[in-house]
Design goal:
With 150 residues, this protein is α+β, with helices and mostly antiparallel strands. Helices cover 41% and strands 11% of the residues. It has a single domain, classed as VSR Endonuclease (Endonuclease, Chain A), CATH 3.40.960.10. The chain has a 4-stranded mixed sheet, sandwiched between helices. Strand 2 and strand 3 form a beta hairpin. The C terminus is likely disordered.
Amino acid sequence: MADVFTKGKRSEIMRSVKSSETKPEILVRKYLFSLGFRYRKNYGSLPGKPDIVLPKYRTIIFINGCFWHGHANCEAASLPKSNTDYWTSKISRNRERDIRKRRELRALGWRVFVLWECNVAKKRLQKLVRQIVGPSNNPVRFPTIRPAEC
């Protein structure tokens, strides 16, 4: 099936896709902040410009879009039917870059977590917080997330 938009219009649409301040990113940040975590966002001084940096815990969180980062076995990551050579190459380069940047960050002593856009849910966030904080005698109290925020 041919694209319903002209080449110029499709280009404009793709340029308008945001790389920061996405809904999943905002949801994760609100959740962490509600638990008392303080962080830096989109920190450009580190490799890969991480979405969330928790300096106190030497932890970095990337919130990846399923399509742009090639999430395996996710229907949101399916390639477009047209121009498949371009998209296969583009997504492949993104995945290779992601792996390289995560390795660089680990070599600098950071713990790196990747959350996928389709998996940003309360249970996943609770598990993430437990991994960041580690085992402790004082369990973290998890707030309830209203359905409108999910």
